[in-house]
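pasting input
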Amino acid sequence: MDDLRRGWVVIDRHRNLFDLDGDVTRSAMHLGLQVEDGWLGLIDRMCDQLEAVAPGGFKVLSVKSKYATLRVAYRGGDDAVEVEVERTKTEALRTCSRCGAVGQQSTVDGELVVWCSGCRGVRGPDR
Ligand SMILES: [Zn+2]
């Protein structure tokens, strides 16, 4: 799957941030980044920032989208980590999860998504 492969490129670039060898009951990183392509760029930027601020022992346990919001689980974080993760989650709320353009939350086929007008147009009107 292309989605997953592109997500692994981001993980590979920031391998030390992710709990890739952890117990699967605690870390979901063996599943990769569970988001669509449009959010990979902001996750990549988040990782750049986290590499600069994260304390030793910090590990990301899972990254996924749920109900059109970005969810990031981690351990060993501190205030600086939380600020960066929250900033990224806020950015995700206005970033098309499909293509990375400016998007907004809307409902498509009864499902909450963050898509740009172009991606919504491909799927047709949602009202
Ligand atoms: Zn889009």
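fyi The chain has a mean pLDDT of 92.
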